[in-house]
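Before a computer can learn anything about folding, someone has to put a protein's shape into writing. The three-dimensional part falls to structure tokens, numbers that each stand for a local backbone shape. The protein below has been through that process, and both of its lines are reproduced in full.
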Amino acid sequence: MRFRDRVLAALVAIGTVLIGPAASPAAADVPGPVVLLGTGGVRWPDVTTATPALQGLLDHGSSGWLAVRSVRATTCPVDGWLAVSSGRRAGDSKVEITGRDYVSSRCRDPRTQISTPGSTGIVPAWPTYQAEATAGTFDAEPGTLGAALAAESKTSAAVGPGAAIALADRQGRVASAWPGRVDDGTGTARPDGLAADVRAALKTAPDVLVVDLGSVRDPAQQASNEPALTGAYDRPRAEQVGALDRRLALVLAELPATATVIVGSLADTGNTSQLQLLAARGPAPLGGAYATSLLGSASTRQDGLAQPTDLLPTLLAAASVPVPDDVVGSALSPVEPGASATSRRQKLNDLADASTLVTPIVPWFFVGLVLAQILLFGTAPLIVRRRGGVSPDRGPMLRRLRRAAAIFASVPAASYLANLLPWWRSDVPGLAVTGAVALFVIPIGALALLGPWRTALLGPMGIVGAVTAGVLAVDTATGSKLALSSLMGVQPVIAGRFYGLGNVAFALFATGALLAAIAVADWQVGRGHQR
């Protein structure tokens, strides 16, 4: 095999490791029923000894985060339920409330029309959901879940308006629906109505049961000039979470021990996008059980992270129904089994804290980095050149400028390596991550400026380029752990990418690899190897 062919074969092998899709394990039958309990605005920091039902899921089940980002910056409950329905990002139409001194975007509550509990339910806003999906860019088809279940003659039951959205067919109808938690913002009409409806729904022996537990809204995240939330939503957040935990406990008490249960917070709590709670218990469709583990998905390839679009394939796989090819998610799997509740909670805290804290730091980081380089490279020519001639300090100044350039070029690789240190646990995370970056700049810069290649014209730049490309290649091949929530990496809250090379990372990798290749070529030419 010629040298060129060997190089091409090596590149293909590397590409397969870096970007090749992971094989999907085969689905395994579960005893059933398969149950999805959906809510919104609930996060793991809300879970304490005052919420025993949620705490029990953390202690004995599988736990993770849902990156709920949908068609807009913040996700409404309807958006989350439509993601379950379609297996893609979808959303309700934007609702704006305009007043004298405010323009507020509000979420519409899910609605359904049921003549008799247990009869056919109709989602009145279904034409709006379909129109939004058609006009959107995610090729969503609301009703995909309901249609797939019906095609395999699987029975389903929806308790609550959000559940009806999830299980509706492509015409916005669900075969068996119960009103569930009747809440129009003024409180729960029947405190025990939700559990009673779940009990009635289970008597029909559905293959898939979906229950809307209601959402939590955070009054503290409301702008001061917006109209006040009323009724159930204006209560303190802890009180809302406590009420939801009591509803969850009543519903869990109705479910059989063989049920596969998934609890997902499908929407944001207010005007700020954050990772949301995800938990599961019982037999897992891809094998094993949801017990004392984290939750993962092939769509994110990150332990403890999943997306709402993963719920449709999970429900279908658990019900032994083929997953449509146009669905983008993957079934939830238990990962890192056997870990203690304390270690799992620490892992969840680390994921959420890094994701939340890095977001406001990123703009300052880029602004500071760019301004510092503009100052350096803008003033250097003024110092090197004097009026009417060249400064006698030109040589030393250029050498210092070259060293400074190598140090600045070390920052991107250092920004990824900084995630080796838990800077997000600091009380001053901005200062901590800056210090972590500086800490890794030192050895990279030293390697470039103090090695035997330091006297070569392109030596230091080649070394920095090689280190940058190497860090990104190794990180990508090993799961993109450093890139996740890094200053130049991928952000889980945005949910655009969870692994691999994003735009910034690819630019850095390509530039670093080219610089390294040019430096090596220059060294070889200097040794007389013209070929």
In short: Residues 341-384 form the longest helix (44 residues).
